[in-house]
Amino acid sequence: MEPMKTLGFYMLTALAELIGCYLPWLWLRQDRSAWLLVPATVSLAAFAWLLSLHEAASGRVYAAYGGVYIAMALAWLWLVDGIRPSAWDVAGAGLALAGMGVIAFQPR
């Protein structure tokens, strides 16, 4: 799979996971409607399906996906929660993305 397509899949996958986990959090911690569990379930199912679209072995996909998830979670922190990531957060995400690149784009 070409690098941009792989990265795009990982980003979409992370977004699905973040939404699928955020909606139950709203229900449990912010006393929102239990109906949020319906789109959360759909989002988590989409997360699992998106992970299955990658051509690499599942363990390698999960390991590389983790780096993208870290960066997307920090973007979520900023865009949704309104908390700007620290320089340490950004450095950590950069290291995680570098690790993702090594794992996902190694010569085969």
Question: Can you tell me about this structure?
Answer:
It is a single chain. This protein has helices at 3-29, 37-52, 58-79, 87-104. It has 108 residues and is mainly alpha-helical. It has one domain. Helix 1 (3-29) runs antiparallel to helix 2. It is flat. The chain starts with a helix and ends with a helix.
Domain count: 1
Straight-line distance between termini: 11 Å
Count of helices? 4
**Element-by-element helix/strand order:** HHHH
On the 0 to 100 scale, the average pLDDT is 92
Helix amount: over 70%
Which blocks of ≥5 consecutive residues have pLDDT under 50?
A: none
Q: Report the strand count.
A: 0
At a glance:
This protein is mainly alpha-helical and 108 residues long. It is built from four helices and no strands.
Top keywords for this entry?
108 residues; mainly alpha; 4 helices; 77% helix; flat
